[in-house]
Amino acid sequence: MTSIARRSQLGAAGPDTRRSHAREESWEHVEDANGVDESESPLRLTFGNPREALHPLRAIADRVGQQVEQFAEKVDHWKDRGMNDAVKNYLSTVELVKSFKTIADDTVKHLNKQHGSELEQERKRATQRRLKTSDDRGTTPAAIQSIESDDLGFGVQAGTTLQDLQHWQSEADTWELLRLLVEEEVGDPRVDRQQEKEDEVNRRGPVHRYTPEIEVWERFLVEDDQARGRKLILNWLEATARHNEADANSVMERLQDTGRGQGTWSQGWLDTRERIKITKKMSANPRQHAASVRATDRTRELVTELDPDAVTRQYLSLEKVDDQYEQTIWLAIWVMLRQGKTWEEVREWCRERNEGWRAVSMGMAHATEGARTCLEGAYAGQLWRRLCFVAARQGGMNEYERAVYGMLSGDQQTVDPVCRTWEDYLYVRFHALLLSQYDAYAEAVHPDRLPASLTGQYPLFDALQYHGNAAQASRQLVESVNKLGAVAVEGKKPMKMIQGSLIGKYFEDLLYKYGVAISKRANSEGVKSTLVPKTEVEAEEAYMTMTEDYNALRIVVHAYLLLNALDLEIPSEHRPDIENVLAGYIDFLRLAGKIDLIPTYAAQLSPMRAEYTLARVLPDIRDVGEQRELMDLMRQAKISVGDVLIEHYEYVLTESSLGEHNTPTIKRYEFLEPTAKEQSIWPGQRIKLGFLPNPQNISADEDKLVRAGEWYMLLPNAWNAVFIPLTIILKRFLRSGRVGAAVALCQRMPFKTVSREKSRDFLHIASGIDVMEEYQEEEDYEELPPQLRRSTRSATRAAPVQRQRRMSPSVRSLRVEQMREQSRVYYELQQLVNMLIALDKWRKAEKELVDDNNPRKPADSKATLRKLFDNVRAAIEPLFSDFLTHGIDDAELTELTAIRHAYIPEILFAYLSVIHSAAQLLTREHLLLSMQLATVVADEANSELAEAFVETGRMGKLVGVFAENSKMMLKLAERKGKVKGRGKKRNGETLEIWEVRARN
């Protein structure tokens, strides 16, 4: 696909744009042949745009600038990995995600010093809320506040908050999740995963009736990739719970609020036992069991025995404090299960509190370390889980006891009531799904392992059937949790959306929807984004909210870079919207002044999108030093600087009011005004005073185009690449009559300066030259071959880096002639601008001399005027020799013809006016130039001059001005009589024939 075809997908290009690409393709072979060197130097960039100094995002970026720059630095080092080497690519990518987690961990450590105590208090309050809510039997508790605050973006308030700590901990968890998934699902290319799996299965041998349950479980995880992946997610959810929720010991501190101290934890139901004793003492026969024991508050009847099953067996209650103790200890056990504590840790915890029977009741008496199916034996584990299911559904003193047994059995219904966070609900479902997968596996590998009579008598919750297709269950499970009323709001928070997409394996879908939302946000409320194209796809509300969180944007961007490097599958039609995410982050960096970081991320875009994006960043950078540094950074990022500059120029041109379809070509640039007959100093017309606009007051559009031209000066080893845009921009200014902008361009990019600056590299000489001045080497050179002419060679792309070598004189002379051809139009257009400048200066000096009332009239005004006249004459001289007739194609020739017709007639009329007044203010010999001009116009060699007057219908007026100048010659001769020095000749010419006297 050609460069024009590629760019047409992002923006329309006018005729000048197409022409620039025609020039672009022609010079690169010449550069290659001559070994142009392209040096690079890594530089730091500072940015300061006063117009955006107060932008709110500046404060955001300043607050977290360290992390933003740390992430960019890691990416910058990573992008130089061996992309063609699968092993290096994988290892460096895994190392990158680890480095992201390290940045987050370090930030957590720093913030924990400030907010650690606040976090601990928040965890205790969460435990209080759990217990208070569970006092209301039969009700489903509301979710506690997420660890994410309502505003996870980088706020502008001073200092840090507890929410910052919680956010960074959540981010560290996210990077850990991503690392686990990458290592599991992608894996080290050096390892044959399938062979490794087969070897492990063969080592373990076949499953039989007496194979220990733990070995069946481990074999299941080896053989089933989906199960192993879900086990990793469960492990991750357990780890997040360990540092986000209170531990079991903290939960047990709740007992101190009941009046019991540390020493009474292991004493059981003290209040109920005491109440039973009192009742017995007061009964008629204290040796018999009390038939009825009333609670202290007389609101309920208490159990009469103190065995663990007494409450459920007798359907009676405990004293309130004992009931709270029971809830708290079961909550502590639930917390341990939720945080993934080993069976040994749970058993030891229970023994310390004389509650060993609870460990036995949970099947922990003989469990192997790490097992999730508990008792060993032929079918004890599977049968035991069915009994736990019955206990969860039909028994239990409180919801936490039911939740513990429900968790062990793989139930969902009995565990949901104690879930408080998004992660809790997710954990319960993944746990149930994994155990259901295991049941299906165990039945498949050894169907006789558990008798059918027992499976029929004691069924289990089948999560596989409940959640549908096992392959898609992960995504369906995450989406179902997000719909739960208790955590629906939490599930729509940015961090949970990111984590959910990774867990559910739909991160590419999140990228697409997020990219759509970024486009909608960037182009909302009548605002058009410069970096993010508009989309017609509707955005979901949750993703629109996510666009306001620049922290989430940073995480998504870097996760995308990682997964994209590992061949993340993205539908081609979604890639433009997905790249909006990167573009949105680049826009954040741009507005925040982190311009030096932008090339690092732009390099991760597709080449066309990178050019498109960077081209819209360049207008923000005005300082030449900063411009040069950014170009160095782009080269280091392996971005085509030439293509970026082309896209930048086309963007500025298309978006400006000077676009091809915005401003028509003017027919005539008028700067003359008529004069009265009594003002004989002028031939019926004169130059308007101050007709030339101030180049310092050009419009914003014009200034952007001038600066677009300036960028090309920084392109190394380029000649035609510089003069192509300068020529096009200057033509556009002149065609549209924007002379002030044309003057500004010529002042800021004068031909002599550009030539001397760029010719050094091209000619391999110590100091540059003006190629339009005479240049001759010791050896004569041959005529320039047609294939090297400006029309067929161009230089918009920098040549590959090669070693510079000495250029022979003949080759250098050939190149100089070639450079003249390529820069001639810009040179002549600048000459046209210089004509207007010279005429404007003349008119101002003329006004001072003619105005008798001018008190500031200088004493040497005539000398000044004489010098200005010489300047005007020198400026006009190029008109008389093949001027603006060297277009590279018919389109350019047409443009140049239009410019000649618009300016040359008016310029020549102004020149004749200058001659007319100079003859009276200085000396009448100046009138000879008028006659010379008539001869030049009539000469067929300068047919373009006559054509300009004929085609514009102004030939008759030109003849009239010549006649006026002839009359002035006669009048001056009559007025002065015999003029001193009349015999002197000017270039062989004399004014004597115009002296009217008897002898003549």
From TrEMBL:
<feature type="region of interest" description="Disordered">
    <location>
        <begin position="1"/>
        <end position="46"/>
    </location>
</feature>
<keyword id="KW-0906">Nuclear pore complex</keyword>
<feature type="compositionally biased region" description="Basic and acidic residues">
    <location>
        <begin position="113"/>
        <end position="125"/>
    </location>
</feature>
<dbReference type="Pfam" id="PF04121">
    <property type="entry name" value="Nup84_Nup100"/>
</dbReference>
<feature type="compositionally biased region" description="Low complexity">
    <location>
        <begin position="784"/>
        <end position="799"/>
    </location>
</feature>
<feature type="region of interest" description="Disordered">
    <location>
        <begin position="782"/>
        <end position="804"/>
    </location>
</feature>
<keyword id="KW-0509">mRNA transport</keyword>
<comment type="similarity">
    <text>Belongs to the nucleoporin Nup84/Nup107 family.</text>
</comment>
<feature type="region of interest" description="Disordered">
    <location>
        <begin position="113"/>
        <end position="140"/>
    </location>
</feature>
<comment type="function">
    <text>Functions as a component of the nuclear pore complex (NPC).</text>
</comment>
<dbReference type="InterPro" id="IPR007252">
    <property type="entry name" value="Nup84/Nup107"/>
</dbReference>
<keyword id="KW-0811">Translocation</keyword>
<keyword id="KW-0472">Membrane</keyword>
<keyword id="KW-0653">Protein transport</keyword>
<keyword id="KW-0539">Nucleus</keyword>
<keyword id="KW-0813">Transport</keyword>
<comment type="subunit">
    <text>Part of the nuclear pore complex (NPC).</text>
</comment>
<feature type="compositionally biased region" description="Basic and acidic residues">
    <location>
        <begin position="16"/>
        <end position="32"/>
    </location>
</feature>
<protein>
    <recommendedName>
        <fullName>Nuclear pore complex protein</fullName>
    </recommendedName>
</protein>
